[in-house]
Amino acid sequence: MxxxxxxxxxxxxGACGLLLWGGLTIGVAFIGTPAKFLAPTLTLPVALDVGRxxxxxxxxxxxxxxxxxxxxxxxxSQPAVLxxxxxxxxxxxxxxxxxxxxxxxxxxxxxxxxxxPPSHLHFVYVAVEAAKTMALxxxxxxxxxxxxx
Length: 149
Prior knowledge:
Layout: H1 7-36, H2 44-75, H3 79-111, H4 121-147
């Protein structure tokens, strides 16, 4: 007997995907990254290099999540998931095409031994990540509540 997944369970993937993504962001951006800077033996250049690679990979994961959640929303006729995806997707795209490349230029210069003037880009990244995380959790939770009605 083949397992048959009811449509309602498949539709729940949208809400679950948003909440999972929010949890991943908390783990990567707000727990793992700050924790590495607490290690007294980790030099700043090494920490910056590790961070650059971590966020490059994580950005790719986020792009996959955007596409996967958009496909789920479109295949299940769930406009609420598609609407919930707009803000996080816009943030990821702005990070992909502007913020992460700008931060990478700074890291590359620091790793090359250049003294860089202070920049607001890191604070922008933290603020954008916080906004994205809150949106993912609030919108994902809202979809769960809507689904239970």
